Amino acid sequence: MTGRMVASICPYCAVGCGYYIKVEDGGVASFCEDVSRSSAVDKAVGAAPVTGVDPSRSALINTGRLSSVIVSKAARAGFPVLVSRAGPPNAGIELARSLEMTLAAFARRPRPYVYSGEGRIS
Q: Which helix (H) or strand (E) holds 82?
């Protein structure tokens, strides 16, 4: 994940276990974090209209796994592209394919692995 990373220490286990979500529409439109993967996505999705972001022209970039729950939240919000540095479970991949979304994981150099919607990635 490029851009600003926020140091986070979990109050329960004293390690950095937060999830970071970034919405990009050519630049960083919003940046959210939470100890819950699902809550972090909810925050980012909720921040998008407040910051004037059109989800259909943006990507939801995240540090957590792209489970079917995360894929469905992004789809309902209108994000066509999901990117993560973590690996996705099969259910997330299958849902993204059925919804014709772009799902890319292991987002690190030299390039991410694109599981679906390869046409949107250049």
A: strand 81-84
